[in-house]
Design brief:
Strand order of the largest sheet: 3-2-1-4-5-6-7
CATH architecture: 3-Layer(aba) Sandwich
CATH class: Alpha Beta
Largest sheet: 7 strands, parallel
Number of strands: 7
Structural class: alpha/beta
Helix content: 40-55%
CATH superfamily: NAD(P)-binding Rossmann-like Domain
CATH topology: Rossmann fold
Shape: globular
Radius of gyration: 18 Å
Distance between the termini: 44 Å
Number of domains: 1
Number of helices: 10
């Protein structure tokens, strides 16, 4: 799909990769509506791209409906809904215990995507055209031992995207799941890595990630990845799942 002339909603668009996507999609000629829980950030990004936005909690279905209404009132029917909002949280080994992150991860990484699909799929099916984009993470394909709730709910986001693709692609709705590796955003930098940590040297800028995503959208690829770790993990699991688990365990010891 070419983004020129398309009406696009991007959640989590106030900062980081979401803001970079909003700017890049606008450069491609899309009419982008931004939403984020940060009101000031929404105002700034909307101003920067010459568009509109609405702040709110995207884990609430009424917020999804309100954002969709704004997009339709401003530009017309929604062509692309990009469920990008996410929360990583601190690195916490043993996070399987209840600490409030499990519910947040489920609501943000899964249910907000479900609410979006409920809102836009009916009109997309009527037109026989549309695009559902979702951000998951490389951790959905690999794993991140320090962040159990993040890893598990991001894997659920990937599974939901698979279901949507199998259910609706043959009816004209394109579905892509973006599973990026480390990126130079506040989500990564908030982990307070030392300056010489290898993850910082391999992380891409939001602008580099936006370039890769646009290429993936144009190719209408289901799984969009930029990290060799994701491809390696998929292949390793297919060859020998038990060996992959053992190797992953050893790498954490």
């Amino acid at each position: 799909m070419k983004l020129a002339g398309k009406v696009v909603v991007i959640t989590g668009a106030g900062n980081g990769i979401g803001a970079a996507f909003a700017r890049r999609f606008t450069q491609e000629g899309a009419n982008v509506v931004v939403t984020d829980i940060d009101d000031a950030a929404v105002t700034q990004v909307a101003h920067d791209i010459g568009s509109v936005g609405l702040s709110g909690d995207i884990t609430k279905e009424e917020t999804v409906k309100a954002v969709a209404a704004l997009a339709r009132e401003t530009y017309g029917e929604i062509d692309v809904w990009y469920s990008n909002a996410g929360f990583s949280g601190p690195r916490q080994p043993g996070e399987i215990n209840d600490n409030g992150l499990w519910e947040l991860g489920w609501d943000l990484h899964v249910m907000s995507h479900v609410y979006a699909a409920r809102e836009v799929v009916p009109s997309m099916l009527e037109r026989g055209d549309g695009y559902l984009l979702q951000t998951s993470s490389v951790t959905a394909i690999t794993t991140q031992i320090e962040k159990a709730s993040y890893t598990v709910t991001k894997a659920a986001a990937l599974s939901l995207a698979e279901w949507l693709a199998v259910s609706y692609r043959h009816r004209g709705i394109k579905v892509s799941c973006f599973c990026p590796g480390p990126m130079l955003t506040q989500m990564l930098l908030g982990n307070n890595f030392p300056d010489d940590h290898p993850v910082l040297s391999m992380a891409l800028t939001p602008e580099q990630v936006a370039d890769l995503l646009v290429q993936g959208i144009e190719a209408e690829k289901f799984l969009i990845v930029e990290s060799p770790a994701a491809r390696d993990a998929l292949e390793a699991k297919a060859r020998d799942y038990d060996k992959w688990i053992e190797d992953s365990t050893q790498s954490k010891l």
